[in-house]
Amino acid sequence: MGAPKLLVVPASGPHQGRPRLVDPAHYQDGKLTEQVRVADHEEPRVFDAQLVRRIAATDVVVKEWLLSKYSKREPRVFYVAPGDVKSEVSPVFGNYPEAIKALTSGEKDKARPLSELLGLSTFPWTTKGDAHRTITFLTYLTNTLLVAVLGVTGTVLSSALVAYGLSRVQWKGRETLFTITLSTMMVPFPVLMIPLYSVFRAMGWLGTLMPLWVPAFFGSAFNIFLLRQFFLTIPSELSEAARIDGCSELAIFWRVILPLARPALSVVALFHFLFVWNDFLGPLVFLTKPETFTMALGLQQYQSQNGGSEQHLLMAASSLLLLPIVVLFFFAQKTFIQGISTTGMGGR
To answer: I want to staple 72 with a disulfide (CB 3.0 to 4.6 A). Which of 36, 67, 131, 307 is the partner?
Structure first.
């Protein structure tokens, strides 16, 4: 490499955040002097910079070449000691390069990346802990669980209240309103996407989780229909007996109907949980900050943030995304099947 160099990371200027090899004379006390072109001439400018390490004159440059032709990133460059390189290594990076092209001797010791030599974690050599270090996966999980819990609570309570009014209470216009409610099931979400975006923007909710769980407290046409059909199978004599005992409509709903409708309520909760867990379009439209992303949207980050597809991280994240659903259905399948089989038997 010739004369010794310094590896620095400028904190400002045209090369901000990008490691650079500079002459030791150009760096002193955290200040980097570089020639910057101004108009038709160059003049020296001083920028803040952080010293990473000194590159010895005996260090060699190692440049990887990639196995995958679909990778979008540039090959990585390492500065290593002469005895720390070899002509080929096993695939260890996210896009699985087949080998590293060395510019010096063919020692059989495994080459170490520059980040490992410098004590950095920019380019992890192993996959251990990558899901938590590269992407805040726990943040995605927390956001998804928050939206799921609030959404399930809201949709179960609101849909059950509306379904009770459409099935157990006699009032004028009930069937008309039920027909209108069913007709809204024919309106796809992309039709409502732009109006909802405008409303949430006017309310200042964009970039927050509120657009994902607040609408659940206003009911869902499908869940209202499902619960209404189940409520119709409950004998009306139970409600009449409760009225004779002095119960109000709210007390009948809370103490008589809801306990008997647990299978249907479980189905509604399970359906909405699955919807929230797998929802991608909603978070994509309404969320703007990475710290608010849900798991479905966060999973997409494994495919694009570092260029190419990090297959090992993508597989690990996909497994974590699928596991709770499998466990949930395994323990709730009896209730799920019972709710589906009994729903719709008493329509009128």
So the answer is: 307
**CB of 25 within 8 A of CB of 32?**
no
Strand pairing report for 5-10 and 31-38 = unpaired
Cα atoms in the 13 Å half-sphere on the side-chain side of 136: 11
Q: Specify the pLDDT at position 272.
A: 93
CATH superfamily of this structure's domain 137-342? MetI-like (1.10.3720.10)
pTM over 0.70: no
Question: Which distant-in-sequence residues (6+ apart) come within 8 Å of 103 by Cβ?
Answer: 60, 61, 62, 63
Q: How far apart are CA 254 and CA 128, in angstroms?
A: 50
Neighbour order of strands in the sheet with 5-10: 20-22, 5-10, 41-55, 31-38, 27-28
Amino acid, single-letter form, for residue 236: S
Phi/psi-derived region of residue 307, left when phi > 0, alpha when psi is between -120 and 50, beta in every other case: left
| Spatial distance between the Cα atoms of 314 and 62, rounded to a whole number of angstroms | 28
Q: In terms of DSSP bridges, do strands 5-10 and 99-102 run parallel, antiparallel, or are they unpaired?
A: unpaired
Q: Report in angstroms the alpha-carbon separations of 184 from 13, 221, 276.
A: 55, 7, 20
Q: Mean pLDDT, 10 residues at a time, over the chain (348 residues)? A: 72 76 83 79 82 69 51 58 50 34 34 42 43 62 93 95 92 92 90 92 92 94 92 91 90 92 89 91 90 86 58 76 82 68 51
**CA 309, CA 79: separation in Å to the nearest integer?**
25
Smallest CA-to-CA distance from 216 within 282, 167, 264 is with 282
**Residue 153: both structure tokens together:** 């609570």
Place of tokens 């975006």: 197
